[in-house]
Batch of 3 targets.
Target 1
Amino acid sequence: MGQTILITGANRGIGLALATELLKNGHRVVGTARSLGKAKELRELDGELTVLEMDVNSEESVQAAVGKCGETVGGIDVLVNNAAVFPEEGDESIFEMKDEWFREAFETNVLGVVRVTREFLPLLEKGEKPRIVNISSGAASVTAKTDYGYYAYAASKAALNMLTRGLAAEFRERGICVVAMTPGWVKTEMGGPNAPLTPEESAQGIAKTITKLTMEKTSLFLERTGGEVKYGW
């Protein structure tokens, strides 16, 4: 029997590719999208799939999704916090950055993860070897930062990494593994056309890693293939 894996932002990009890969491998997927009207490709996937409408920026929406998820699948084994936004173009100087871009990035990429994790925790604790996977980015690395690009996105993902460390420490006694994971540079709306990886290639590595995660990995910043990132936090 496969695992039950919830993926936020599963209607496009890496989220959609990951849902496809997991279903192909016999796992049960709960895929969420901010609007079901924009989740046609997700809803058409074959396999044991539940699609829920959920806006990670709305406490009420997240709570409603938890209720529906509990009624449909009960517990979940893995929570993949994938939903994210990239408000800027990426090459703006600080003088060109809009305050609202920082607010948007932190609202979704950090607070969205807080809301979803907090509300879905009871269902996660019903799962087998519960795991939380926060999809981060190499752009989050403070150690490797040498340019001034991606201000809002990079800062929000760095904050997500810090959140990951805190959650790992708090949830260790509950037996919940919490990691940050970079999917690599992927050809998506965020990654752009020059990225070397397709969403499918990235998803294959992520799927293998998250279904085998153990508490030995908790609190780490991982590559999609399961090893620690070489460039550091």
Target 2
Amino acid sequence: MIQPKRVVIVGGGFAGMYAALEMKRLASAGHRVTLVSAENFMQYQPFLPEVASGTIDPRAVVVPLRPLLRHATVEVGEVTAIDHANRRIDVRIPDGAAVGLDYDVLALTAGSWSRVLPIPGLAEHGVGFKTIQEAIYLRNHVLSRLDVASETEDAGRRRAALTFVFVGAGYAGVEALGELEDLARDATRNYPALSADEMRWILVEASGRILPELPADLASYAAAQLRGRGIEILLDTRLESAEAGTIALSDGQTFPADTLVWTAGVKPSPLAGLGGFPVDGSGRVRVDDRLRVLGIPDVWAAGDIAAVPDVSTGGLAPPTAQHAMREGRTLGRNITAAILGGDIEPFVWRNVGGVCSLGRYKGVANVFGIKVRGFPGWFLHRSYHLWAMPTIGRRVRIALDWTIALLFPRDITQFGSFEDPRGPFRRAAGG
């Protein structure tokens, strides 16, 4: 009788969830599949800008893991140690307690974190844009700045409240800025004391162009569209300091700003180094084209945490959602084949292009070499991501949210008080 294998997947993002989905046959054969995730859901990151603008309900862009992975065990917690010699990981569960999980096969799919540079004041005053929590916070924060600006009599305070700085001009930075600027512009119509022209939106990019993932002509079109809305794009410019809420840029500008959004790249999860696995210069786990960790038996990796060879380019697969999704599927099939018997296939995926929203009804796209801009680009952006969104239920919810947004005015409710939910009770208890 074959001894059942214990397969543990670390990370519940694109790569981890899709790897687990491909292991149903493994679970049916009596082997145990366990997925360890910091949250009990997978978030669809490409829709975070629309969550921030209120176009999509936050619940529609997260997929609960347990109902989807009924063939697997989902453990919610943070992996704090990996001991591959003894095939064991330590997990800190939500109440702070530590538990151990034994495994026979380990799959690392823990993704990436924001790449935060040691810039004075950045950690204290900046916010990233990689999680649903950050998207909801930014929506509340931007709307609260309009409240501050409309109610203060201090001109300097008003300018700081209405100044919004985004650092990093890749997909995340451009889409977040485009959606939030649309939201704030619509919201100012409800503030008699405010004008949209008073707001200052600034996109800071250290390189010489925005959207490096897209062809240069589409990037130039996107930049022109943003500038046409009064958004400042500062190229070849770096953030030097954000101390005391004052932004200092490498071009010599210094000004106060209440909002600083950091989208200047990602770094692999530090889990890559916990088990002593081989990593490249960026800290990603080195794997072969079958997603096996080099030189380490029974350990696999995929997604942003892994340096996955890209056979179509001869380089490495980029850290994108479409690559992580497909790497995860290959990973799940390969682990299943390695245990049950079968062919272990190389990861092969040709990038189909890229899509980018610039706000409502505006976008750019490059799909199979066909370049699209304006409303068609925006429509392609929505169509592609709606197709890629896991589960029919989530797709229907998102389509309904979009329909409601077309028929009714934008909702500008902000729930900043949710950040301290016990505040009212503490005040009541204090008399």
Target 3
Amino acid sequence: MTTTERGRLAGRRAVVTGAASGIGRSIAERFLHEGARTVLLDLDGAALADLAASLGDAVVAHAALDVTDGPAVTEAVRAAAEALGGIDVVVNNAGIPMVGAVRDLTDEDWDRALDVDLKSVFLVSRAAWPHLEAGGGGAIVNTASIAGMVGTPGQAAYATAKAGVVMLTKCMALDGAAAGIRVNAVSPGFVATPMLERWLDGQDDPAQARAGVEAMHPLGRLGEPRDIADAFVYLASDEARWVTGTTLTVDGGFGATSHPL
């Protein structure tokens, strides 16, 4: 795959976290198809290297990164900016699931979920901010979740972290407006990713669990990573030039109704 000459993101210099699989992989593929030059970051360096090799020369660089490690994040973003010659788009997609009610979660569970799913957005955005300012502005797009917008049982830490992403998105949008930095989020419903497959496989009856989750979406199916990646392309592009501080829900109608979870 090579850079598209006249894509919707032609000439954009993008950094994508959590890029090795699932939604992040699809975002990377869509960005490259739309003309962006990218640096891809993920904790799984081996999977990331395989992805970069398959995508071709539009991947300017890739690196293994723990997005909860502040100094490592600062250095990775600095190196990305150097490799790209600046940064125009930041995608904060790295995340992990964390299942459990408050009574069941350990301190470590809670801290891990908040660190990976929320604090990482702060760390990466803070590191990228001066590079975005230096380029006259840009776009930050964060991965939130429908779980951060409607209450769900057994998701106390994950849902709280994703709700935090929604509010952090609003605050950063206000802080960045004067500098031309737009900040938005995408809130997916249940998407067919390796992370969801692992969760389904861990249920007592995986087939029944899958059918139940599909039925929660009025459009009658799980989302595909491409469904979510297309929203990221829009929010990173000039088509969204007057859009900031919003969370775009892409959930097959999940949030439009109530569910017997």
